[in-house]
Amino acid sequence: MAKTKLSKADIKKACDILRMDDGVGAGNYIEQLSWLLFLKVFENIEFELRELAKTEAKEYKDIIDTEYKWSTWAKKDWKDKDELVFFVNQKLFPYLRSLSGTPEKEKVAEIFREITNRIHSPHTLLDTVDILDSIRMEHFQDTHLLSQTYEEILQALGSEGGWSGEFYTPRPIIRLMIKVVNPKLGETTLDPFVGSAGFLVESFDHILSQNPKMGVKEWEQLQRKTFYGQEKKPLPFLIGMMNMILHRILVPNLIRTNTLMEDIHSMPENHKVDVILTNPPFGGKENQAVQSNFPITTQATEGLALQYVMRRLKNGGRCGIVLPEGQILFGGGAFQAIREELLQKFNVLAVISLPQGTFAQMGAGVKTNLVFFEKTGPTKEVWFAEVQGKYTKKKTIQDKDLEHVYTMFKDKTLSDLSWTASIEELSENNYDLTPKNPKQSAVIFRKPSEIADGIQTSVLKNSKYVSELFNFIIPKFSNNSVRKITLGDTKYFDLQAGSTPKTDIKEYWDNADILWVTPKDMGKLNSINITDSERKITQKGLNSCSTTLVPEGSIIISTRAPIGYVAIVGKGLCFNQGCKAVLLKNKDILPEFLYYAVLSSVNLMQKLGKGATFSEISKEKLKQIPIAIPFKDDKPDIETQRQIIVTLKSLNKLSKDIKEELGNQLTLLNALNQSVLRSYFKQD
Predict the structure, then answer these.
(1) Which fold does the domain 8-138 belong to in CATH?
(2) In the prediction, which pLDDT does 165 show?
(3) Hey, what long-range contacts does 303-307 have (CB within 8 A, 24 or more apart)?
């Protein structure tokens, strides 16, 4: 009898049961779990597709006939247990393999043509079915738990040595790449070497977080016309399909194909995509027949993969790719020709160096780099950065380890761990894209005593900075003259809400010059002043909705998840429903002072936000936010406001100086280890 509540232990118990079967064993349990899960989950997918068809007044025809649905055979009382195994092998699999007539049916057939039932014991099959039958896909808790646990199983399989690094990319790396490339609703996203589909499921979550209030049309587009993947091997193909379904992508656009067998000499425009995110196979070799599909011939799979993604991008398209730190980044011959084409025809934004052990958990010890580029014209300058840290199978890389490099990327910050190289410098060096930190490579050749002196100097410098922090702990300004007003005080402020015109009307968005700002823009810019945006709108588009142009010097606040980004309008703009603008009615309050005052109330705004899935603070609630204003002679005190602005700016600069000096100390400490080694072993 099926249990009523699913737990993570139940799913892992199903794996243990499968492992013990004579026909399955440790090497095949994930495959067997996946096809069983697929049929269990697919019944609920059919229900969702049927409901979606109803909303569009369309007729829906079942993909799998009643006799072969999970609820029919899995819940049946099999008095002769061996009859169940016979049914699966002789009836269920042949039926599923023969499905045809619609893309959905052919996709199911494609999956089951590639796999077989390896479960010999009917007791193994019944025990596993009993556990999986307790899953209630209509319950969010069950679907969330199942998708999480499936990811953990895939990760464990990689660490057991069952998969190499290209099939399962650590999810923190994927999430960093997605934040940098930023796939959007309405764009097509491809992973041509899809593996477990991590890039696609995380992109799906990213787009959902950016578009919390999606209509039926947008949801349909996200489901059917957004995510695409290609996979050569049958097991990753099945796993990628299963992973996408468990993450609510109901009809995955995955195809079984060897991507490198595609002739790319003339890529049709309708085959190109907006976004590519991928971790291709590297270290392998392809034969002459495969090499002939590419303009620059090379045996190395990474050289062919890079050429492939370059040609699959639309004009304006963006790519994030994992590449090994090897010949593809610094080699001559074909490798140099590929890099030259990349730099001359694409804008290479960044190359981020990952530590040696980043992929150690997946059994891949190769040092790797993340390369980001867009099809917007030739490269002028490349930003390089290093992620530092030691990672092993047990100590894996985490999201927090990558926050700093993403923050630096947004502003192309220069530091001891980040630098730039012009296209002229790169061309003089054979277009070498290996991240070689000019500061660190120079410092390790200094004597250990010199580096130690540098560390001591840096520590003393930072100690001075830290002592200065105490100047900011107690405010210098008396609270006696401070009054609290609210953002709803009409004497000082006018609060404006935004709205969004139709996104599918081209004349609203093409050749536009008015800034159009969303919470996502604000999060990405992370700046005190907004002077640009990813998207712009025409005056006609602006006239079509109730929002109006916000004057320079106003304050804009993101009020829909994530709540609390604040900025000063540096140039007239308009904004969508996810933001509110605070217009200053007179010159009694300085914009920069109001910026800091509002920033101090972010936690309160977040508490006042409501919404089960995506939190939002209403205009009325925003009006209640208190703002502390210094007063003098019954008027806001401009001079004190200026002093507070100067003080807070000084604190921000001091904090930045401390962070930079800490980074300098880390660089010197790493260099000291190398310098001592060179000294001990007479390498100078």
Answers:
(1) Ferritin (1.20.1260)
(2) 43
(3) 303/327, 303/328, 303/334, 303/335, 303/338, 304/260, 305/192, 305/193, 305/259, 305/260, 305/278, 305/280, 305/281, 306/280, 306/338, 306/342, 307/264, 307/338, 307/341
